[in-house]
Amino acid sequence: MIIERLFIAPAPDAAQVDCPTIAVVGGLGIRGDHNFGRNDYPGQNLTLVEAEEIERFCAELGRPVDLSLTRRNLVTRGLRLNDLVHREFRIGDVLVRGVELCEPCSRLGRALSSDGLSAAAVVALWTGHGGLRVDVLSDGEIGRGARLSIAG
Q1: Is residue 152 part of a domain?
Q2: Distance (Å, rounded) from C-alpha 128 to C-alpha 29?
Q3: Structurally, how many domains does the chain consist of?
Q4: In a domain? residue 151
Q5: Across the strands, what pairs with 90?
Q6: Residue 47 · residue 102 · CB < 8 Å
Q7: Is residue 105 in a domain?
Q8: Of 92, 68, 78, nearest to 16 (Cα)?
Q9: Which residue range forms the structural domain that includes residue 114?
Q10: What pLDDT score does 41 carry?
């Protein structure tokens, strides 16, 4: 139940930056990320994905493991994120609320497709495994190794 990696993308199509820590602001998201301050839909503040799901995908396809490949902000280990929808929990000292599953989109499908795997097949493989969208409820910093704990 830890944070293994943290990523931001300064622009929507920019390469992700692997960060040792990130600063988050309640209701706004991650400072320096292209989604900071955007509230087009609930759960836009922060996205999480399980390292185990990335490793599963890469192993099934014989690809090297790349924990940034889903473009989610936080990569977790040791916890089923699907169980956190509609629940408040802490990442270190930061309080967040799970909003909805972060289901794969056609953009992810295109990014991970290959000669032997269509974009639609990628989306099918990630459906139900793509992580979690959360709203940030308090300000703070999150670093590698931070623990996740259920609030309350």
Answers
A1: no
A2: 24
A3: 1
A4: no
A5: 95, 149
A6: yes
A7: yes
A8: 68
A9: 2-145
A10: 87
Tally DSSP H helices, then E strands, for the chain.
3, 11
Place of tokens 């993308």: 9
Which pLDDT belongs to residue 152?
A: 62
Taking the chain (152 residues) in runs of 10, the rounded mean pLDDT of each run is 95 93 97 94 92 95 92 96 96 96 88 89 91 97 96 66
Alpha helices in 22-76 (DSSP H): 51-61
Q: Of 127, 108, 131, which Cα lies nearest the Cα of 43?
A: 131
CATH number, domain at 97?
2.40.33.20
Torsion of CA 127, 97, 16, 122, to 10 degrees: 0
**Tokens in use for 117?**
């795997």
Q: Kindly tell me the burial class for residue 11, based on how many C-beta atoms sit within 10 Å of its own C-beta (0-12, 13-18, 19 or more).
A: exposed
Question: Is the separation of the CB atoms in 24 and 136 below 8 Å?
Answer: yes
Cβ neighbours around 27 below 10 Å, total: 13
Helix axes 51-61, 119-126, angle to 10 degrees: 140
